[in-house]
Amino acid sequence: MKKLSWLILMLVTSVSSGQDGTADADDVATIDGLMKAYYESVSGHPGKRDGERMQSLFIEGGKISINLTGAEPTHELAEDYLRTENFLTISTDFFEREISRDTQAFGYMANVISTYGISDAMENTNYTARGVTVFQLVKHSGRWWILSTMWQREGPELPLPARLLD
Q: Fewer beta carbons under 10 A from the terminal one: N or C of the chain?
């Protein structure tokens, strides 16, 4: 019982001590808003991404897992990864948009499987790459937070199944 009480206390404390709440209310009021903000933040023309906006979507201690085919996957704190030049700098037009989504929610938690396409313009559906991002979300303090993300791009030996394109 003591272990359970301690675990609950740690969870509540970690959720309570998240980002400072500077996110735009429309970005975090709903899962739809959160997903829209995520894709807008990761996309853009050459230059800098909106790292502050992206960071405002993640709870403190949130994780980003990057799975690159043929490379070791990484698992980093969002606040660390989102400050790197690798994330912040875009060298070409890069627009990632959601193609389809499967959301499983219960109470204040949700799992989202989001299929995306990458192109040189947000409205361009002639994708140069596609993949899937999995999100774990939690609703706390009247808003949605990203707890973790993990993504995998489609490849010749890993085509997207039809069920992820509906």
A: N
CATH code, domain carrying 135: 3.10.450.50
Contact yes or no for 20/133 (Cβ under 8 A): no
Give this prediction's pTM: 0.83
The pLDDT tens digits along the chain (166 residues) read 444 333 333 333 334 334 455 899 999 999 999 999 999 999 999 988 888 999 999 999 999 987 666 677 778 899 888 888 888 888 999 999 999 999 999 999 999 999 999 999 888 889 999 999 999 999 999 999 999 999 999 999 999 999 999 8
Give long-range contacts, CB 8 A cutoff, 24+ apart: 29-37. Answer: 29/143, 29/144, 30/144, 31/103, 31/105, 31/110, 31/112, 31/137, 31/144, 33/144, 34/137, 34/144, 34/146, 35/98, 35/101, 35/112, 35/114, 35/135
Where in the sequence is the domain holding 51, given as residue range(s)?
2-164
CA–CA separation, 132 and 101 (whole Å): 9
